[in-house]
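[Discussion] Sanity-checking designs against the backbone

I'm trying to build intuition for which residues belong where. Below is a structure token string of 100 positions. I'd appreciate it if someone posts a full sequence so I can compare it with mine line by line.
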């Protein structure tokens, strides 16, 4: 077993391998960290692409007269002059503040 450790090429190879795996600026640990960052960014990119598609559909709907009127009625409670609006809220949709 000791004859293997007396071989200078083996010692140099082990030193080089340890250097490249742990201490080098391009080490395996840094590559793993960068790969996880890339994966997170790819997931964010996919999420934002889906959101862009959803927003484009909403914009197309708001460009129509019916869609704009529906949005104004639902979000801003706007009404025509001869209408009455009744807002019905269910118990589970109300936010209660508790004094602590």
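Best answer:
Here's mine. Compare freely.
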């Amino acid at each position: 077993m000791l004859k293997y450790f007396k071989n200078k090429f083996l010692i140099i190879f082990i030193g080089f391998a340890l250097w490249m795996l742990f201490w080098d600026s391009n080490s395996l640990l840094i590559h793993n960290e960068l790969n996880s960052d890339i994966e997170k960014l790819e997931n964010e990119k996919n999420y934002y692409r889906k959101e862009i598609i959803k927003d484009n559909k909403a914009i197309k709907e708001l460009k129509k007269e019916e869609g704009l009127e529906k949005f104004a009625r639902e979000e801003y409670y706007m009404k025509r002059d001869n209408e009455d609006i009744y807002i019905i809220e269910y118990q589970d949709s109300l936010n209660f503040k508790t004094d602590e």
